[in-house]
Amino acid sequence: MRPREPQKGLDLERGFKVYALGVRISELAEQAGVAPSTVRYYERIGLVPSPPRTSSGYRTYDDEAAARLLFVTRAKRIGLTLEQIAELLPIWDGVNCAATHEQVSRLVDTKRAEVLERIRELQRFVGQLDEVGQALEEAPPPAVCLPDLSCCVPTAEDQTLRVFIGPTTRRAHDAHRSST
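^ thats the sequence. predicted structure below, dont judge the formating
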């Protein structure tokens, strides 16, 4: 089997109009897996450069803009903020892979630590919710809601939910509150 020859471009007559100089916003957005409104937003905040427009006003994006949008969407999908992405773009600038790789590695490590801390916080919160759920299951609701609603909606103090389970009469409840 012989190697395939590279395809030659069209050799058109002078003045012939071809509209393949770029892609429209809908095509670009589809390629990147985002909505056209997202592309416009990224353009407005400077992450994607404003493209030239056709005589009828359509935006036409070139390969450079497509690569930049791909960079932005991938960075966003790994959890980087738009501010972090804005700081990365001048480093990358379409050609500086090594420095970008290094910086993205640092940012990913930082993001990973943040996510692990958030997971720990959520696990603590699940424990608090379990305690509240158990307390609510174990204590029958009073005939009349308590003024502080602790009988049906416990409060959280100092990241620990304190559940009031006790007397079902207002007088007993008041006595309990004054003793704590």
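The beta strands are 155-157, 160-162.
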